[in-house]
């Protein structure tokens, strides 16, 4: 994505609790003379801020023009990940734009292939088995989180449907009472004018 030199861009990531989140980014600066993005943005750094669903700041750190950040969520919900350059130019003069390459990985456990190339096959199988067990735990945690979200959504839907039903009943009663009132008023009008 593209951002201005002093602009802040935020991404919302829905994360279950106790989950590792890793992000890799690379910032490229716009070269006015060449009319293209440079391979890197020398001298620029990026502020990375991560906020939990309750509003607590989980991570706030300055990195270079490219880097890796990681955090572990302690509660489930929508975490807000914000990136902003550390440009010190005034807003009026900070007309340069940046291209940010961002890769966010949620719940990923990296598997070290160099360890796998160990000579002892038992250790290799054991390491692969431990990695699979970690993946199973992560998948189970993700399923539990999705189940909680589905239950919350179902309750909200049922409450909304109930409210709509009561509103329809109230509207019907109001329309019927207005109809009776209009009929009575019209009848009284006809009687007073001696048309009936």
From TrEMBL:
One family name in Pfam for this protein: EMP24_GP25L
Membrane topology type: Single-pass type I membrane protein
Subcellular location: Endoplasmic reticulum membrane; Membrane
GOLD domain segment(s): 8-106
GO CC terms: endoplasmic reticulum membrane
SMART domains xref list: EMP24_GP25L (SM01190)
Name of the featured protein: TMD11 protein
Gene: Tmed11
